[in-house]
Write a structure and sequence with these properties.
Elements lengths: L1 E4 L9 E7 L6 E2 L4 E7 L2 E6 L4 E6 L6 E3 L3 E6 L5 H28 L18 H9 L18 H8 L22 H16 L9 H7 L3 H5 L8 H16 L2 E9 L1 H16 L7 H14 L5 E4 L4 E4 L5 E3 L1 E3 L2 E3 L2 E2 L7 H16 L13 E5 L18 E15 L2 E15 L5 H16 L1 H7 L2
Parallel strand pairs: 12-16, 16-17
Antiparallel strand pairs: 1-8, 2-4, 2-7, 3-6, 4-5, 6-8, 9-18, 10-11, 12-15, 13-14, 17-18
Family: Belongs to the 2-oxoacid dehydrogenase family.
Cofactor: (R)-lipoate
EC number: 2.3.1.-
């Protein structure tokens, strides 16, 4: 019997989420056959069978969050060994020890963990969604008494427990939920008695009246018109990353505008040359080249902060992330060594990375080691925004729609092609004055493309 464990599929990765289980219990598998599809840090990884055999047991369902080291399934190769038997014996011993500790904790706290019908501990019955909710609310689900069928822990049970309430501590019929199904009368009766005595020693919690219950319940009509979707996969990873970024980084956003008539004319002059090479030439490569020049002159924008050592890390390489909108959410593939590539090379790579992103084929190496991010929302619209920094980077530049506007030049009103930019920066490291000087330099280079070509490496 071979244990298939979830290993680190990428540097620094600690957990993932199962998107699809591609095999069933009792199904034969061959070596290198895909058996799981897992979402890790915005990257979808396909896990394959290490050996050929028959799937005997699958431990996690779709939607479950798994950690590195978890055993995902067992594959029977048709071979048996003393080592396998000894390993099973040690696992059984560990499970019993965990159950004993959980039971002792329950005795001390006056609560009864969910018990199985045999000595030892069994995990609380709960769906993956309820388990995830418990983790988010910092609730130990093994300490929650379930009120659902067969003692299943429900969403309401977890939320009430997190609020310091319990629907199972007063009503006598619920005092032994989780152990009532046990047939081991001696052990179970003993534990029921101890749990009941512990509950009697607890202060009695007043139950809500029928009227209060009705007031607490959501409107039935509203419930029927709701749709609940699981927060999972890439959307979940994006959410976690955004929360981490805004929690750690004090964001400040500076807005400016660019006059791009000269850049538009310069790009038009290059488009025939790009077409000969089958290259789609957008404005983004010009922004990347201007950005790289500014990053070299203002190195704190191409840095990160090591919070553990309280050090500023100034990076001597320029890897520019480009935010790409996909059906699953926003992803940020990275153009490595952007300072060493030509306008045409950058244009080709942008198209290639965007295609991989939209097809869901980005690999981890496509999305790591970024030093600065550009978010180009201009083709969609919008005048300005407050983009969230891609932690551990310290700044992000958003580009907005390009449009004709009335502006004043030499005391006269004229029409110019204008674009707004929004620069969010980490105020721990970058001051507002420095941020304005940084955007001024980018502005200067883009408004005078001949100057950009003159200083570009």
């Amino acid at each position: 019997m071979v244990e298939f464990k979830f290993t680190d599929v990428g540097e620094g990765m600690h957990e993932g989420e199962i998107l699809r289980v591609l095999v069933k219990t009792g199904e034969p598998v061959t070596q290198d056959q895909p058996i799981f599809e897992v979402q890790t840090d915005k990257v979808t990884a396909e896990l394959t069978a290490p050996v050929s055999g028959v799937v005997r047991e699958i431990f996690f369902a779709e939607g479950a969050t798994i950690e590195v080291g978890n055993t995902l399934l067992l594959i029977d190769t048709g071979e048996s060994s003393a080592e396998a038997k000894q390993q099973t014996k040690e696992q059984d011993s560990n499970i019993t020890e965990i159950g004993t500790k959980a039971l002792e904790t329950g005795k001390q706290q006056g609560t009864a963990p969910f018990m199985s019908t045999v000595p030892g501990f069994r995990r609380a019955l709960a769906t993956p969604y309820v388990r995830q909710l418990a983790r988010e609310l910092a609730v130990d689900i093994e300490q929650v008494r379930g009120t659902g069928a067969s003692g299943r822990v429900t969403e309401e049970d977890v939320r009430l427990y997190a609020e310091g309430k319990s629907v199972a501590t007063v009503a006598g019929k619920n005092e032994t939920i989780g152990v009532a199904e046990s047939n081991a009368s001696g052990i179970v009766a003993d534990e029921e008695a101890r749990a009941a005595q512990a509950d009697r020693n607890q202060p009695v919690v007043e139950q809500p009246t029928a009227q209060q219950h009705r007031e607490l319940l959501p409107n039935r009509e509203a419930i029927l018109r709701q749709e609940r979707l699981p927060l999972r996969g890439m959307r979940k990873k994006i959410a976690e990353h955004m929360v981490k970024s805004v929690t750690i980084i004090p964001h400040v956003t500076s807005v400016d505008e660019l006059e791009l008539d000269r850049l538009i004319a310069f790009r038009e002059s290059l488009k025939p040359h790009a077409a000969k090479r089958n290259i789609k030439l957008t404005y983004l490569p010009f922004f990347i080249k201007a950005l790289v020049i500014a990053l070299k002159e203002f190195p704190t924008f191409n840095a990160s902060i090591d919070d553990e050592t309280n050090e500023i890390i100034l990076k001597q390489y320029y890897n520019i992330g480009i935010a790409v909108d996909t059906t699953e959410g926003l992803v940020v593939p990275v153009i490595k060594d952007a300072d060493r590539k030509t306008i045409f090379q950058l244009a080709e790579e942008i198209v290639q990375l965007a295609a991989l992103a939209r097809d869901g084929k980005l690999k981890r190496e496509h999305m790591t080691d970024g030093t600065f991010t550009i978010s180009n929302v201009g083709p969609i619209g919008g005048l300005q925004a407050t983009p969230i920094i891609n932690h551990p980077e310290v700044a992000i530049l958003a580009l907005h729609k390009l449009e004709k506007r009335w502006v004043v030049r030499d005391d006269a009103g004229v029409i110019r092609q204008m674009m707004n930019t929004s620069l969010s920066f980490d105020h721990r490291l970058i001051d507002g004055v420095t941020a304005v000087r940084f955007t001024n330099r980018i502005k200067e280079l883009l408004e005078e493309p001949n100057l950009l070509m003159a200083v570009m490496v």
